[in-house]
């Protein structure tokens, strides 16, 4: 565009350029202006039916290429006499001009205006600078800025009139679909750079440059002098103030989020670049005044402003810009700073309904683009900017109860991502508990309130940070005080899962470190403990599998609560609990000095267990051995009661023989209940209950042998012979074991005579 807009190029040059541009433009791989070349990104705009337009194939619609604007610019020329006068003279005014229409050539002060599509007008400025006409570029830039300022004033007046005439309608229509920030021609950046360069340039820089009018046959322009008070500047204004003002006008403009990843990223990038340039400028009183004026305009200008009262659902959010405005205005006008930041917090594209504002009024929403499925590729970046804005406000509002409440309400209303709310909760907590001062209790409460909101949001959804969030919330509630901890325990079911409530919340609340941290007296400790026990029992009822053990632990110091928890376990044991959970609780019971209760739970666990013949390394084996040892230590009756359960549940020969061997080594109940001792007689293998166990063990060895021989390979022969040796030891424990074993071996030799090598090994070892 800069090339074809060369003000002094010859017609034949322009014709050849146009030919070349059209040739490139027609090539299949010519990149599109919005970056979505060749459908590299799916066109999600038409992903959903859109009524009348539903069948329109997006690939058939003409796309703007990177050359389209240059081709269009070939039709532009510099012959307009008004334009010629603007760029040629610092003295071009018309004080008698009173045509106050929208497209008038001069404003009420008689200063020249230039009405042209803003990006195109700015492309002219860019072209003048590129071809060595900085003075002319500056003059046109000033005329454009003055036009924009006047237009802004007119828009405000028009909106105010509309509001008076149609008080019940809220207008959200956007006047221009092409936003200036993020635009391919970067109009705002061009104006800003031209004006800022003029501040840094000395007069001498312009000497020796070609004079714009020498080929135009018009009077030579007057020598340009770089003075802060240029002919077309208000008193006290300079190029810097104009540059800042035009940047603020552009950044605050309401504009629709464009389609496609490339263009959306460009909007974000361009905005951030402009703001970083603005941040390099030191604010003086004059600039603060401009900031104030623009901030007020942005709040009051309705549909023309991205910070208007009601905006279009897919308007580009203002979070980044508002954060900058907030920081600049805060030391000078806190009320205005907060108004701007709070207005900017919204993110309508994530709201389930269109903007409604004041619910008492019926609203007229003028749709600007076809109803489309919102596809914002930069949404995660936008949400993080929204979070940054909120965090900036929280930091600034520390110590101000009213402001903190307002900011909290805004966060709760406008932020939809649990991870961002959690970040804000953490930020508020850090700010509230800075080491150099006493904690800010209001800010701590804000932090807790946000934390509670995160708990509710993530309670029924999967979130990998959930445990961290729960732990953090307890820490936060501890800082707020004992009543906060009591409160979260009493309403645990709206915030936590039963497992979280018992294993993290109540356990942490009851820990010594919490009691020390809160300096609790005995009465407060007991009140907190009572809430923890109530919570524990409720959780155990709701989810006994995962909460019973925690509930028992939490209720240890209260006899009635402990009994209740134990009863909950017994009730759940028959239906809802696995043998692993029951064995764990049984071992805990034994450890706490309740052997009979431990025994009862162990017998219930045994009924759920099933160990087949080949599961000789199963993790539950240790539990079975422990349960039998416990029964044995309690006495003959307990052992007699558990052995039938073992026989029914365990089919693994080696495990059964291990239990059998242990039962025959010592007398049952030697360390009996209440310290009573038994007579000291060993139990007989010929009588119940050990006879039943012995028979079951022999039977298990026989079954296991047949199972192994079905699929045995030669490399397992020696291992199999060792297995038979162990079997023989068990057989020989029986009164007629020798005869039984001989019969067993003879049987094997008969049935498996085909396995000659193996049977030879059997004969060698067992005859």
Automatic annotation (TrEMBL):
Any single GO CC term annotated in Swiss-Prot or TrEMBL for this entry: Cul2-RING ubiquitin ligase complex
Zinc-finger among keywords: yes
Keyword Zinc attached: yes
InterPro entries the record matches: ZSWIM4-8_C
Keywords noted in UniProt: Metal-binding, Zinc, Zinc-finger
Domain ZSWIM4-8 C-terminal: 581-758
Signal peptide: none
GO molecular function, one term: zinc ion binding
PANTHER family xref list: ZINC FINGER SWIM DOMAIN CONTAINING PROTEIN 4, 5, 6, ZINC FINGER SWIM DOMAIN-CONTAINING PROTEIN 6
Protein name: ZSWIM4-8 C-terminal domain-containing protein
């Amino acid at each position: 565009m800069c090339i074809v807009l060369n003000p002094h190029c010859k017609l034949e040059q322009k014709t050849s350029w146009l030919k070349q541009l059209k040739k490139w433009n027609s090539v299949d791989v010519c990149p599109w202006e919005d970056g979505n070349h060749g459908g590299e990104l799916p066109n999600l705009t038409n992903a959903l039916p859109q009524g009348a337009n539903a069948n329109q194939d997006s690939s058939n619609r003409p796309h703007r290429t990177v050359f389209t604007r240059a081709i269009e610019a070939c039709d532009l020329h510099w012959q307009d006499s008004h334009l010629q006068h603007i760029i040629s003279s610092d003295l071009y005014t018309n004080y008698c001009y009173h045509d106050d229409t929208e497209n008038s050539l001069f404003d009420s002060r008689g200063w020249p205006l230039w009405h042209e599509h803003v990006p195109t007008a700015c492309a002219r400025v860019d072209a003048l600078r590129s071809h060595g006409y900085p003075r002319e570029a500056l003059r046109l830039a000033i005329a454009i800025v003055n036009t924009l300022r006047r237009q802004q004033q007119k828009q405000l007046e028009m909106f105010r009139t509309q509001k008076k005439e149609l008080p019940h309608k809220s207008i959200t229509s956007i006047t221009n679909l092409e936003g200036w920030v993020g635009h391919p021609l970067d109009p705002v950046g061009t104006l800003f750079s031209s004006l800022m360069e003029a501040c840094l340039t000395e007069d001498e820089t312009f000497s020796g440059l070609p004079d714009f009018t020498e080929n135009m046959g018009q009077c030579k322009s007057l020598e340009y002098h770089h003075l802060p008070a240029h002919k077309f500047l208000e008193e006290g204004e300079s190029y810097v103030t104009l540059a800042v003002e035009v940047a603020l006008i552009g950044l605050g403009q309401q504009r629709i989020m464009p389609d496609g990843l490339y263009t959306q990223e460009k909007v974000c990038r361009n905005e951030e670049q402009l703001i970083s340039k603005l941040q390099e400028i030191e604010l003086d009183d004059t600039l603060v005044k401009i900031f104030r004026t623009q901030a007020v305009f942005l709040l009051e200008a309705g549909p023309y402003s991205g910070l208007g009262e009601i905006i279009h659902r897919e308007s580009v959010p203002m979070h980044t810009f508002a954060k900058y405005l907030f920081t600049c205005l805060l030391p000078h006008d806190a009320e205005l700073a907060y108004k701007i930041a709070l207005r900017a917090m919204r993110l309508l594209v994530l709201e389930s309904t269109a903007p409604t504002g004041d619910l008492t009024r019926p609203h007229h929403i003028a749709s600007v683009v076809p109803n489309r499925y919102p596809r914002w590729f930069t949404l995660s970046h936008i949400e993080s900017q929204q979070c940054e804005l909120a965090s900036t406000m929280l930091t600034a509002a520390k110590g101000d109860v009213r402001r903190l409440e307002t900011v909290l309400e805004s966060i709760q209303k406008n932020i939809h991502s649990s991870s961002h709310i959690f970040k804000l909760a953490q930020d508020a907590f850090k700010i509230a508990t800075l080491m150099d001062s006493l904690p800010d209790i209001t800010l701590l409460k804000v932090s807790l309130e946000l934390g509670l909101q995160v708990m509710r949001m993530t309670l029924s959804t999967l979130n990998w940070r959930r445990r961290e969030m729960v732990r953090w919330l307890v820490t936060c509630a501890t800082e707020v005080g004992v009543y906060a901890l009591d409160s979260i325990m009493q309403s645990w079911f709206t915030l936590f899962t039963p497992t979280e409530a018992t294993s993290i919340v109540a356990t942490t609340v009851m820990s010594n470190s919490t009691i020390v941290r809160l300096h609790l007296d005995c009465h407060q400790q007991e009140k907190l403990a009572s809430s923890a026990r109530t919570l524990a029992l409720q959780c155990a009822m709701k989810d006994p599998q995962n909460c019973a053990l925690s509930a028992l632990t939490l209720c240890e110091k209260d006899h009635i609560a402990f009994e209740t928890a134990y009863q909950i376990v017994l009730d759940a044991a028959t239906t809802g609990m696995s043998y692993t959970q029951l064995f764990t609780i049984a071992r805990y019971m034994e450890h706490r000095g309740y052997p009979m209760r431990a025994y009862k739970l162990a017998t219930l666990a045994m009924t759920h267990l099933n160990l087949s013949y080949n599961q000789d390394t199963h993790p539950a084996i240790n539990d079975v051995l422990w349960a039998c040892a416990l029964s044995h230590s309690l006495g003959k009756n307990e052992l007699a009661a558990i052995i039938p359960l073992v026989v029914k549940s365990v089919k693994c020969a080696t495990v059964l023989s291990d239990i059998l061997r242990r039962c025959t080594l010592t007398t049952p109940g030697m360390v009996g209940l209440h310290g009573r001792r038994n007579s000291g007689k060993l139990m007989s293998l010929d009588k119940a209950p050990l006879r039943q166990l012995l028979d079951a063990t022999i039977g298990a060895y026989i079954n296991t042998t047949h199972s192994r021989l079905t699929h045995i390979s030669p490399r397992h022969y020696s291992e199999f012979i060792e297995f038979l040796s162990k079997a023989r030891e068990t057989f020989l424990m029986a009164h007629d074991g020798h005869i039984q074993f001989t019969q067993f071996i003879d049987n094997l030799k008969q049935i498996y005579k085909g396995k000659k090598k193996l049977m030879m090994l059997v004969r060698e070892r067992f005859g």
